[in-house]
Design a protein that fits this description.
It comes from Paenibacillus allorhizosphaerae. By secondary structure, the protein is mainly alpha-helical. It has one domain: Four Helix Bundle (Hemerythrin (Met), subunit A).
Amino acid sequence: MEAIVFKQLEFVRKQTLKVLDGVKDHIAASIPDKFRNHILWQAGHIYLVQERFAFLIHGFDAELPESYKSLFAPGSAPASWTGTAPSLAEVTDLLRNQPQRIRQNLKGRLGESSPSPYTTSSGLTLETIGEFVNFSLYHEGMHFNAIKQYKALLTP
């Protein structure tokens, strides 16, 4: 089962990277009408949540730039940003390397109980490391879809 989770993690991420490929910085930083975030926020949010769900919640070291916690946190929006945001290329580089780091660090540990069980906003309680990683696939899929929609709205 573990191999399937890691395989799906890599597949989902490849799809996310494919949809981000070729997005120009001005498009990535444009907020479509009636939305509150942009493609850059979506990509950074995917990275942040994956770091939290794979590493931070369980007490493991993460590769997380300090500014990401405020820029890409749930409920945040570019309209309230006060610092300098990373470029889409910077976020994409982090996204590209993340699945391999997760596999390397969590191989053989997906069945372990998390020291901090978590109940999602939709009411699902995550109790093992594997449950967190597996749920992050659903989470990424939601934001992948938002990126696709934003691209369709913003690209001539």
